[in-house]
Amino acid sequence: MSAVCNSDFTNKRAVITGGAGGIGRCIAEAFLAAGADIAVIDLDAAGGDRLAAAYPGRVLFFAGDVADETVLEDFSQQVVDRFGQVDYLINNACLTRGGVLSGCPAEDFNYVLRVGVTATYLLALLLRDHFAAGGSIVNIASTRAVMSQPDTESYSAAKGGIRALTHALAVSLAGRVRVNCISPGWIDNAGVITDAADIRQHPAGRIGRPEDIAAAALFLCGGQAGFIIGEDITIDGGMTKQMIYHGDFGWEFTVDS
After folding, report:
1. Of the listed 55, 111, 121, 155, which one is catalytic?
2. Does residue 148 form part of some domain?
3. pTM of the model
């Protein structure tokens, strides 16, 4: 996976949560390709070790759960010890534990919020005084913050919280760190979606790729985005802009009997 970048991030340092696989791995490799050194935290120790091995001396990998405040404190200290200063923080880690239909208990619901929202806040707090001039935070939310399928309450709540937290942090850190957000739509992490209907329903004529998100993260951290603050950028191939009515363009609504 690779993302096109017009900025040079040589001698820059990026911190990425959930960077051992999927979108996070693509973002990590994009920053590495652009010249940055990175620090990654992820539960996937094997994936993180493979990433570090592929880029000797350029990746600080920390195996741990971002839902644990002590883990975040240890990770942040290692980042500061290794890099001294941080240029970019990409809060990508999140997950789902279902919702009201599957009986998601409070413990699981709150765990998702800790991973998606609390960790995003705590890392901004822990690294607040260690950002270099021109620093940037990019939070990865989702179009699920504004639209849902059934049984997605834990994930949707976390992603909605990330969007709100983004503009709050942007105001609090104004003049020191720019804070923005990306809301992906359907992203084919494995590159295996071939169903014509799935593809053609998108106004863009395709499903999203991890590189689409990585390219946006690079842009938001670069100098060309210096006047973009507190924004949420939706990257979903136009799906959230498409009006859907029964009978239009092949869309059908079926009433369960």
Report:
1. 155
2. yes
3. 0.94
